[in-house]
Design goal:
Layout (H helix, E strand, L loop, with lengths): L1 E7 L2 H16 L4 E7 L5 H9 L6 E2 L9 H19 L3 E5 L3 H12 L4 E4 L14 H11 L2 E4 L2 H9 L7 E3 L3 H7 L11 H8 L4 E5 L8 H16 L4 E5 L4 H11 L5 E4 L4 H9 L3 E4 L2 H10 L3 E3 L7 H6 L2 E3 L4 H13 L1 H8 L10 H12 L29
Parallel strand pairs: 1-2, 1-4, 2-3, 4-5, 5-6, 6-7, 8-9, 8-11, 9-10, 11-12, 12-13
Helix pairs in contact: 1-7, 1-16, 3-4, 4-5, 9-10, 9-14
The chain binds uridine-diphosphate-N-acetylglucosamine and uridine-5'-diphosphate (UDP).
Uridine-5'-diphosphate (UDP) binds next to α1, α11 and α12.
């Protein structure tokens, strides 16, 4: 038996770890599961834990209002060290590029425990964008023993950094594993307001924003663009589940709080969110995970970033990198809302991020690493069939 410690702490890393946790449970003949939540997020983490029925063995409960990067790091590292010293896991798994990810890998390294990194190799090569995630993931790669790259592009980025090729595997992204079991055709939302909005049959523009490098003026510009769009398109519903960070809320609520067709709501639980995404016409976001989920439905996404570490969907066409310029956000959204041919071209792209089998591949690779199996693993290759549903618009949807 090998003991696998799975570390998570925020909304996205927990969503993407959930399929891995489930797969470890399915392999209980070989693996003992140890789940450790840093709880860098609290309410937004608890929402995910509830949906995926995860009860962490350890909950470090470190979140503080308006916490700093240093405080997250300081409050996590010693606690993780104590758990590792007591539990002596055979491997530690971390996901993505949060501070929980980096500190989890560092604490494991200090105890000489092998590290597996889920979603390895994403790069912008710009240490200020996204901040601090670009550095979190590069530092994590330096420590990692098994690199689970979601795409071929991510694998190439790791090889360019002289990472041992025999330790890098293209698995696809577990975000698609989670999505595939969560989106239902006749889904009823737990929030009544959403059921009402959907029944209006108006086009929905879904919004999310939270990135640290966008705090302040850039986020203000993006909100101004949304305000202009909402005023120009009174027949559309804009739905914005607002991140709990008070720094984000201090910009969003004063700018968008009193517009009839802008619905500012609390963060949605994962099932409500992805099912709302499936019914949306356009997404405007600075999120990483949402950029990967949108292409699954063939929904055009405007990404509020200067650069993206997820170039695949930009190449395939579903994602448009619009930055934070108010005018560019407004004009690109307008073109998508007004021009059906332009919309259809974007909406018929392929999803390059996963096929729902990423966690399975990952666990097989871990079994092989420990000599528990010798089965070969087919790496993930994007295919046209990976996209669930096209969004071709023929009639006038206004
Ligand atoms: C963190 C991650 C970021 C990830 C994002 C996902 C780092 C440095 N940042 O950013 O990579 O994209 O999560 O959402 O790891 N808050 C609550 N309740 C919650 C969650 C947050 O009140 O459930 C508030 C708190 O005041 C907290 C603040 O939000 O101090 C910021 O949380 P933090 O984890 O530091 O940063 P995020 O911007 O959420
Ligand atoms: N998400 C959610 N509720 C929301 C908004 C997003 O469950 O109200 C999910 C979304 O489906 C995706 C993840 O949260 O899987 C993205 O998290 P976030 O944007 O906070 O972080 P990032 O991906 O940018 O690190």
């Amino acid at each position: 038996m090998k003991k696998i410690a799975v570390i998570f702490g925020t909304r996205p890393d927990t969503i993407k770890m959930a399929p891995i946790i489930q797969e470890i449970k399915k392999n209980s003949k070989h693996f003992e599961l140890l789940t450790i939540a840093t709880a860098q997020h609290r309410q937004m983490l608890d929402q995910v834990l509830q949906v995926f029925e995860i009860k962490p063995d350890y909950d470090l409960n470190i979140m503080k209002p308006k916490q700093t990067l240093a405080s997250i790091t300081k409050n996590t590292i010693e606690e993780l060290d104590n758990v590792f010293s007591k539990e002596k896991p055979d491997m530690v798994l971390v996901q993505g590029d949060t501070t929980t990810t980096f500190v989890g890998s560092l604490a494991a390294f200090y105890r000489q425990i092998p590290v597996g990194h889920i979603e390895a190799g994403l790069r912008t090569n710009d240490k200020a964008n996204p901040f601090p995630e670009e550095i979190n993931r590069r530092l994590t790669s330096a420590i990692t023993d098994l690199h689970f790259a979601p795409t071929e592009t991510a694998k190439k980025a790791l090889l360019k950094e002289n990472i041992d090729p025999s330790a890098v595997f293209v698995t696809g992204n577990t975000v698609i594993d989670a999505l595939k079991v969560s989106v239902k055709k006749n889904y009823r939302f737990s929030i009544m307001k959403l059921n009402k909005l959907i029944s209006q049959k108006k086009r929905i523009v879904l919004l999310t924003m939270h990135r640290r490098e966008n705090w302040g003026e850039p986020m203000q510009g993006a909100c101004n663009a949304v305000k202009r769009l909402a005023e120009a398109y009174p027949d559309l519903n804009f739905v914005f589940p607002v991140h709990l960070n008070p720094i984000v809320r201090d910009v969003v609520f004063p700018t968008l709080g009193n517009i009839e067709n802008v619905h500012l709501i609390e963060p949605l639980d994962y099932l409500d969110f992805v099912n709302l995404m499936a019914k949306s016409y356009l997404i405007i976001t600075d999120s990483g995970g949402v950029q990967e989920e949108g292409p699954h439905f063939g929904i055009p996404i405007l990404v509020l970033r200067k650069v993206t570490e997820r170039p695949e969907a930009v190449k395939f066409g579903t994602v448009k990198l619009v930055g934070l310029d108010e005018g560019k956000i407004f004009s690109t959204a307008k073109k998508l809302l007004d021009n059906k041919d332009y919309y259809n071209k974007i909406a018929s792209a392929v999803n390059p991020y996963g096929d729902g089998l990423s966690a399975k591949r990952t666990l097989q690779i871990i079994k092989n690493y420990f000599g528990l199996s010798k089965a070969s693993v087919n790496e993930f290759i994007p295919k046209a069939g990976n996209k669930k549903a096209g969004r071709k618009i023929s009639g006038n949807k206004k």
